[in-house]
Amino acid sequence: MKADLWHRIHGLRDEGLSVRQTARRLGVHRRTVRAALAKSAPAPAARPPRGSIVDPYRGWLLAKLQQYPELTAARLFQMVRETGYPGGYSTVKRCVAELRPRLRPAYLTLGFEPGECAQVDWGVWRNLPVPGGIRRVSFFVMVLCHSRMIHAELFLGEGMEHWLAAHRNAFQAFGGVVRKVMVDNCKTAVLVPGGPDRPVQFNPAYLDFAAHYGFRPVACNPGRPNEKGRVENAVGFIKSSFLAGRGPASPEAMAPALADWLETVANRRVHRTTNRRPAELFAETERAALLPLPAAPHACAVVRPVVAGSTFRVAVGTNRYSVPSACASLRLSLRLAADRVVLALPSGEVVADHPRSYGRHQDIADPEHARELESRLRHGRDHRRIERFLALGPAAEAYLAGLREKRPAWRGHADRIAALADIHGRDEVARLLMDAIEHRAFSSEYVLNILEARSRALPEPGPLHVTRRADLLELDVPEPDLGIYGTEARP
Fold it and tell me: How far apart are CA 203 and CA 101, in angstroms?
């Protein structure tokens, strides 16, 4: 505020004018009057700006920047020193920053015919706790460029199988296929980005998928986000409208809510560019312009060779999936989809089919895959058990047959009887088995009891004492004392 305005405001106040009257008289805002009245003295006059050593060279620097906008401040410093500039580099650097023209890029508005093009991209949300660790939740977005119709889907991965499955699901949701799809330079779509001297090299798996559905992939130029602005805006819209304020949850749990949001909010709002609702514009002009879906959907799976380990497991990421024990150490073919893990022999015979697990460090096993190995191992153990038991003598075979007939848990009885032979001797147990067969006593407890009874120590035999009848007749019997009965007892 200038000093003369401060004095005029204070003078009118001294005359008794109100703030409103003073502002009307001077043609200023009431806030200006109040600010002046709040100050006890006018602000000091601003000091004129001090000149810089580079000021005489400003015109020369501006001319060079207009002629060569790409010149750096370091290069301009070297050039201006040749003209006699005596100052330092930092002063020239600040001056160049002030003088360099700031050009804002201009973009053409891209127009698309109905059914001509769709734009696709991934969005990243947040991490989700899973068994054994965490996984990042991503979402795939496809936008029809003419109607702005949006399809979105949540995934726990961004691999080729997820990329292809998301395209397939989007085409099925729209009921048709566009003629070209604009993609970013992600590895699932583009292996080598294009340049002035080289064409774009697309991922062969993505080209096969595009040929199946009949569209042509188009890669955006690196560093040009405007070329897929429709899908970039849709990604931001989903984050700010659908995902904002939600806690992390699995894609399966959030799928119904996302489908409802797409139907009632995203595709029913009035788009600010077209001034139409995407669902209505799609139904009117774009649905009929889409190419028909193929007769059969694409498998959307990645196929690669793998080798099963000695524990008949195949590693997929950090998880392990079982195969039949007969396939241990064999080369197999892995068909990895977004929801299934299928393993097959080179001949094509499927040997394992598992639901895909998105946990980390999990062991996904089918109990039937170990049955054959367990049976083979049990058969081998039984063979060794029988050989050991038959070595107990000629009665061992008949006794083993009785054990298997009478005792369901015959293996345990046979093992315990064979162990008793190691303690008490093979010959002793062999004789006992013959007795046990006669008594039909088929049990390891019977054998143990008899062995313990026979092994107890008997007392040493002493002199034989025989009582003679004459000895019994020469017994001395003392005379009884009848006095204990008293005189009253006598008759």
Answer: 41
C-alpha dihedral, 299 to 304 to 305 to 306, nearest 10°: -100
Task: Give the whole-angstrom CA distance, residue 119 versus residue 231.
Answer: 6
Q: Is residue 205 assigned to a domain?
A: yes
Checking DSSP bridges between strand 180-183 and strand 216-219, what pairing results, if any?
parallel
Confidence of residue 480 (pLDDT cuts 50, 70, 90): confident
Instruction: Answer with the residue of higher pLDDT: 167 or 46.
Output: 167
pLDDT tens digits along 283-318: 999 999 999 999 999 999 999 999 998 889 999 999
> Which domain, by its residues, includes 91?
55-99
Count of alpha carbons within 13 angstroms of residue 28, beta-carbon side: 17
Residues 130 and 255 in one domain: yes
The model's pTM: 0.62
pLDDT of residue 489: 47
Of 286 and 387, more confident? 286
Number of independent structural domains in the chain: 4
Instruction: Region of 486 please: left (phi>0), alpha (psi -120 to 50) or beta.
Output: left
Residue 101 burial (C-beta neighbours within 10 Å; 0-12, 13-18, 19+): exposed
Beta carbons within 10 angstroms of residue 153's beta carbon: 21
CATH number of the domain that residue 159 is part of: 3.30.420.10
Q: Does residue 416 form part of some domain?
A: no
